[in-house]
Amino acid sequence: MAILRIGYGWDSHRLAPGRPMVVGGVRLPNDRGPLGHSDGDVVFHALTDAVLGASGFGDIGALFPDTDPRYKDAGSVLFLREALALARRKGYDVVNADVTVILEAPRLHPYRDPIRLSISAAMGIESDRVNFKAKTAEGLGPVGAGEAMEAHAVVLLER
Ligand code: MG
Questions:
Q1: Ligand 1: centre distance to CA 1 (Å)
Q2: How close is the Cα of 159 to the center of ligand 1, in Å?
Q3: How far apart are CA 2 and CA 139, in angstroms?
Q4: CA 97 to centroid of ligand 1, rounded, Å
Q5: What is the distance in A from the centroid of ligand 1 to the CA of 61?
Q6: pLDDT digits (tens, 9 = 90+) for 48-79
Q7: Could you read off the pLDDT of 105-130 as tens digits, one per residue?
Q8: For helices 77-89 and 42-55, what crossing angle results, to 10°?
Q9: How far apart are CA 87 and CA 97, in angstroms?
Q10: pTM of the model
Q11: 3-class secondary structure per residue, the chain
Q12: Among 18, 31, 111, 142, which has the highest number of CB atoms less than 10 A from its own CB?
């Protein structure tokens, strides 16, 4: 009988002028982007934590410390691929992933499909196993003020 394990991840990064805006591995035209030791991709960070959570490997900060120079400006796809490699070594495969990004600008609507395809390519799974949603904070809080962005992710694994 299949063993199912669910994991949840959340991430938030401050936005700063002149930083590249990268969402799920897709670079978007914008004058601000996430500050971070890595590229600050909240989608891949939240997904990494969801995979680690489902497979019982703790969290992204413990596995990929931001004091480690190897991860300076790293493409965050590295974290997600490494987390999935750990999960697969325990015999887990991804059933599906669901991601929500909360960001005031740019509007992500036109990029939903490229981002979904980029996530599925990064995870090495069929694109119909990935769902991507984008929202704004309707002007509320630091996300609403355009000072930060957030992502939430849920991943289901099966062994
Ligand atoms: Mg992060």
A1: 35
A2: 28
A3: 43
A4: 18
A5: 9
A6: 999 999 999 999 988 888 788 777 767 899 99
A7: 999 999 999 999 999 999 999 999 99
A8: 10
A9: 14
A10: 0.95
A11: CCCEEEEEEEEEEEEEECCCEEECCEEECCCEEECCCCCCCHHHHHHHHHHHHHHCCCCHHHHCCCCCHHHCCCCCHHHHHHHHHHHHHCCCEEEEEEEEEECCCCCCHHHHHHHHHHHHHHHCCCHHHEEEEEECCCCCHHHHCCCEEEEEEEEEEEC
A12: 111
Q: Which amino acid is at 147?
A: E
Task: Write out the two tokens for 155.
Answer: 């991943």
Distances in whole angstroms, Cα of residue 89 to Cα of each of 40, 50, 159 = 27, 16, 11
Distance between CA atoms of residues 143 and 79, nearest Å? 24
Compute, in angstroms, the gap from residue 35 CA to the centroid of ligand 1: 9
Structure tokens at 46: 């939240």
CA of 2 relative to ligand 1 center, distance in Å: 32
CA dist., res. 76 & res. 71, Å (int): 9
